[in-house]
Structure formats: structure tokens, C-alpha cells
Amino acid sequence: MSKSVETNFGKWQSILWPVHRSELKKLVPMLLIFFFISFNYNVLRTMKDSLIVTAKSSGAEVIPFIKVWVMFPMAIALTALYTYLANKWSREQVFYMIMGLFLGFFTLFACVLYPLRDALHPHAFADWLQTQVPEGLNGFVAMIRYWTFTSFYVMAELWSCLMLFTLFWGFANQVTRVNEAKRFYGLFGIGANFSGIIAGLCSMSLISYGHLVPLFNIAGEERWLFLQIGMLLISGGITVALFRWMHTEILTDPEYYDPSQAKADAKIKGKLSLRASFAYLAKSRYLLCLTVIVISYNVVINLVEVLWKHQVRELYPSSADYTFYMNQVMTAIGFVATMTSLFVSGNCIRRFGWTKTAMITPITLLITSVLFFYLFFCQRYELGLNTLFPILAATPAFVVHLGSLQNVLSRAAKYTVFDATKELAFVPLSAECKLKGKAAIDGVCSRLGKSGGSIIHQLLLVSFSSVVGSAPYLAISLLAIIGLWLVATSALGRQFQELTEEDQAGAQRVDLISQDQVLGEDSALQEHQAAV
What we know:
Strand content: under 5%
Shape: globular
Number of helices: 19
CATH class: Mainly Alpha
Oligomer: single chain
CATH superfamily: MFS general substrate transporter like domains
Helix content: over 70%
Structural class: mainly alpha
């Protein structure tokens, strides 16, 4: 029988580290696994953008086309693959298979696809195609022209979809109890966000000092990319080792993992399918609200980021400068998110409840996005406010740095309070509902959200021929979607409160029954002793 974890902590421990010493054996390796998976995610996030956005005849306008025409179909395909594997093998085995798939592709890209890029890219066909389509479809042409970079972009994006959200969080939801989740999930963000700091510093160091590493005849950008891929492979190997150690040394101990949960997981094995996953979303009002929240976030962040990355590319056109700046932003995101994990997310969940904590992310995006768009319009269209505040129209760099601040705050909110509350929302559900609902929401719906934002971008690009020209309509779309997000969060919060109250009431009834049984046994023993 597991120990109670409801003991009160000291003032500072309850804020910074609400963990019992006996729980460290379970928590620390999970934090490390999350750290290394997130480290790879952060490295890949800057690599994928720098490859495709700074390529000749390309730009930020290529991103919406990739997300609709390649990313979304691949997300469905890999989610179907995941559900197929989950039907035939254990969660642990599926983790190793998917990890091997990603690391194998990144190795192939570094050793074959990137060195042979000039021979593999169909420049002649792309040049002809560019003369046949409207200017607003130049991003579509760039997607085809640089198909190897497109494939890398897609696999980098799907890393977060499958490895981080579906596999890790699915594993965490399986082995973490509700009372542990309320304290642990805020701390998980510390490992992920600290990894952003380390990944940014490591990437910037490779750009600045990578030429000192002996790599035979590899030079230039190819050397930098090869070193980055090497970091990914090392981090992935450490993750596999930690994951295996947890399964052999920790999850075999009933104090840390209830074997009855494993039996529940085994019962639903063989019933999982992609169709069944979506059927769960359609039938459950709870999961539908969660779906709206996930899709809304991904649409909103995509609407803002494309415009911001377009501005960054104009300010830093070279691949090295673009990558270096984006790594600076990523390091800032990691620092702010780490502080948020320590002082905000976990404490807000415990003190203010799920709903108020979940509202932090949409409100943050609402305020920062409105400010970014407003000052962008002031700078771009020379609105009257510039006469009162001349600094707003000083240089394009001002808008870029303001957009960077928006990205830092919104990403920090996402990596802490948004992810923690989203994953906590799965915990009260049944094992079957967790597995099927999570596979659909994290595997496909998050991609659907990004694709939805990309479709909006594509329609506006075709209509206005440029990212800048479509900006006013992007702002209007953003406000409408954030409003829907707030409504869904409020509705889900009420349902979450009802479910957790039912779980607590059930747990109290079990405790009372157990106490009655113990008292009954004591009374029977006393009567027997008296009779003797």
C-alpha cells in the first residue's frame, strides 16, 4: 500500500519543491526523461526554421503550406502507425520504436540528404512552376523546391507531437497518481524549460566555436548541422537508457506504480484504433472541450508566429544570424518558463484550481498578441500614435524584438501552465479514455490546429500576395479564436471540478470502508480473546 502524500510541507518547500524524499526515486528520472526529450525539441525547433525560412527563394510564407499539405497528412499517418503499434506491443516497446524512427531519419538527413541537397532539389522544375502560379503561392513552390528541408521540418514538428506529448505525457498519465500529478506536473515543466536554456546555449556555442571541432573535411553550415544532429543522437540515447531503467527498477515497485493500473491498460489493448479515438472525441463533451482548447492554442500561435518570423527573416537574412537570434529567443523562453514553473504553474493549480490556472495562457496570448499587432500597424502604416510615441516607428528591429517578447511570454505560458493543466485534465479519466482521447487530441488535433492557422494564412496570402498585407485580417481571426478558447476552458473547468470531487468522494468512501473493516476485525479479535 502506497504512502500518503498529503502531509503538509513547509512554506518554501510547498512553493518550490512539494515533493517527499521517498518520491524522488520516481520523480527525478521522469524529470530527466522530460528534460532530454524537450532538449531535442528545442534544438529541432530552431534548426527546422533556419533551414527552410532562410533558403534562397523561400521565407516564412512557406510554413503555412508545409503545415497543411505535408504536416497534417503525416500527423495522421504517424498517429495511425502509433495506434497500430500500441495494439501489438507494450507502451515501452512502442516508445523505443518511435524513438528509433526519429533518430534514424535525423541520421539519414545529416549523412545523406543534406550533403546531397543540390542534386536532390528540383530547382529547374520549381523555377518553371513559379512562373505558372500566382505570387501568393510562392511558399508552395519553395516547399517543393526544398523537399529535403520540408521533410526535416515535418519530422522535427512531429517529434513534439509524438515523443513529447503522446508518448511521454501518455506514460506520465499512466504511472502518476492524481495527488502526485497536482504536485509533479508543474515541476515537469522545470526540466523541459531548463532544457530550452541549455539547448539555446549549446546551439549558439556550436555556431560560434563549432569550427574548432575536428570533423574531417566537413565545413561551413554542414559542420554546424552535423554537430547539432550529434547532440540529438546523444540526448536520444540517454533518454532510452533512462526510460528502460525506470521500467526495470522503479515501476516494478508497487509503492511507485499500482499494478492494477497495468492490468487496466492491458484490458484495452487490441481495441485501440484511429476511428475509435475520434469516436471518443465526438461522444464526450469533456474531450470536445479539451479538443477546442488544443486546436485554439495551435491556431493562435501559428497566426502570430508566421508574421513574426517573416519580420525576423527580413532583419536577419543569413542562416547563421537567423539561427543565432532564434536561439537567443529560445534561451529566454527557457529562463522565463523555468521561473514560471517554479513560482506559478504548480502553485496556481494547488491554490486557485484548474480553471483559473488554465485561463492564464489564453489571457497572456490575448494581451501580448494584441500589443504586437497594434505596434506592428503603428510601425508599418504610420498611424497617428507615432507622433506621440516616435519610438514605435523608429526601426523594424523594434517590432521584431517586441514580437520576440510576445513569443517568449506565450511559449513560456504554454510550456508551463497550459501543458500542466491540459495533462492534468486527462488524469481523472478512465485508462481507456486517456489512451484513445489522448492519441486523437495530441496526435492529430494539435496538428489540425496548426493546419487551421496555416489554411487561414494561405487564403490570405492568395488574396493579398504577402504576409504583411494580410496582417489586419490575421488580427481579427486571432481575437475570435481566443474568445472561443476562453469559453471552452470555462466549460471544461466545471466538468473537471465535478470529476475530481467524485474521485475524492470515492476515495473517502474506500477509506471509511477500510476503517470499518479494521474496526470489525479488532472487535472480533477482542471478543475471541475475551471468550478464551
